[in-house]
Amino acid sequence: MSGTAQNSAMLRIQSLLDENSFVEIGGMITARATDFNLQQKKTPADGVITGYGVIDGNLVYIYSQDASVLNGSIGEMHAKKIVRIYEMAMKMGAPVIGLIDCAGLRLQEATDALNGFGEIYLKQSLASGVIPQITAIMGNCGGGVAIMPTLTDFTFMEESKAKLFVNSPNSLEGNIQDKFNTSSAKFQSEESGIVDFIGSESEIFEQIRQLIKVLPASNKDTLQYEECTDDLNRVCQELENCIGDTSILISNIADDNVFIEVKSNIDKSMITGFIRLNGVTIGCLANRTQVFALDGTIDKEFDSVLSPSGCEKAAKFVNFCDAFNIPILSFTNVTGYDASIASEKSIAKAVAKLTYSFANANVPKVNVIIGKAFGSAYITMNSKAIGADIVYAWPSAEIGMMDAKLAAKIMYADENVIVMNEKASEYRELQSSALSAAKRGYVDSIIEAKDTRKYVIGAFEMLFTKKEDRPNKKHGTV
To answer: Which intervals hold domain CoA carboxyltransferase N-terminal (predicted)?
Structure first.
């Protein structure tokens, strides 16, 4: 054993894993370096506890950095222990969880420590898309260490003590940490979008446990299923009232109303997260125009448009689901693109990424059009044109080039208001109604909002054995 049974690094592991399930690996390892009198300092477990255990019966590999040993800095043997855990996890097909509390590179070991950084980066890169990778930042995570959580799939951050930064806030010209704390959990979750969840340590551990329960163990795992006790034909009354805040809509149709949202603090106009339908894990994403507070009042409102950060968020999520064979369910309510000078710099590139992600994904894909679906923004949101297997629409949905009134105004610019209104009504019926889209085959069925749950469950059951090849290539370049 490492002799660190009661330190914070070990206590965190014990708090996260099932009771008495942790088995330590490499507990006797210490630093090999002797430069700068390092041999005179004790380095139990070389500052990182590594091993394996279970969460709700699911095997996971874990490392937890010990800030009491040289501030948790990464040296040669410290890095080798983390690399070893990754190698074992990839062989066994199980997630890796990293609990980070690290001062950075161990200066006494110089190039040996620097090479260790590189070896960790390599293993993380090779593991991407093979096994789920989760990091939780419990203390410091600065400099090159900040790359480690960014290379993983999901990142958690303690809301008060943790710090995540490449450059310290005080090193940024004209800034001090007290003025604008770029290392805070708030900034890294709301502005950079690196962090998926923030909270206290106990809240983070509970969130990780919930996430592990719904994620597959690896990209080869086809057994991620639990018995469904919810009514498969449950009617979701008044679901049409959830068009604005689609997080409520998704929760309503989910088994037992459980929705695990990821990256909830970055660009709330796009929602991403996981639910179960008939016991099967499903990745959900949706446009959102309203956020309701706990008291039922509207807290925030957004235009029904795609934004650069929203597209980036959704594209990363779709890529993760496709890599791990998780079916995708989307809810579309979009009229165009965010129009601002700031957005114009990156909107085309971000939309292209999301379009490519949907088109490239060959998992089962179902789309439900719940509101407006206009122009090329609608095409990007998992339309049949870019590969959706099944598309449903609610009766009130509008699908087409643009709003009927605007179309009539353009086509009949010289006519009076009465004529424009007549033509708008005609355009709506012939070109932008759910029925007109269904007649052309762009919508498979028009369904009542309250029946959405049973229809999407049926669709995914039908698509369970889907196999769809893509052109032979090394990888795309978008």
So the answer is: 1-169
Q: Which CATH number fits domain 8-211: 3.90.226.10, 3.40.50.150, 1.10.3720.10, 3.30.413.10?
A: 3.90.226.10
pLDDT digits (tens, 9 = 90+) for 268-321: 999 999 999 999 999 999 999 999 988 888 999 999 999 999 999 999 999 999
Q: Give the model's pLDDT for residue 90.
A: 98
Q: Assess contact for 332 and 371: CB atoms under 8 A.
A: yes
What is residue 431's three-state secondary structure?
helix
Angle between helix 246-253 and 452-462 (nearest 10)? 70
CATH topology of domain 225-397+433-462: 2-enoyl-CoA Hydratase; Chain A, domain 1 (3.90.226)
- Band (pLDDT 50/70/90 cuts) for residue 1 is very low
Distance CA 385, CA 192 (A): 32
d(CA 98, CA 154): 11
How far apart CA 205 and CA 211 sit, in angstroms, is: 10
Give the whole-angstrom CA distance, residue 97 versus residue 162.
Answer: 17
Do the domains 8-211 and 225-397+433-462 sit in the same CATH topology, yes or no? Answer: yes
Q: pTM score > 0.90 for this model?
A: yes
| Distance between CA atoms of residues 242 and 236, nearest Å | 11
Residue 118 has pLDDT above 90, yes or no: yes
pLDDT recorded at residue 225: 79
d(CA 226, CA 222) in angstroms, rounded, equals 12
| Mean of the per-residue pLDDT values of the chain | 91
Alpha carbon distance 380, 371 (integer Å): 15
Only one residue has tokens 């805070």, namely 184
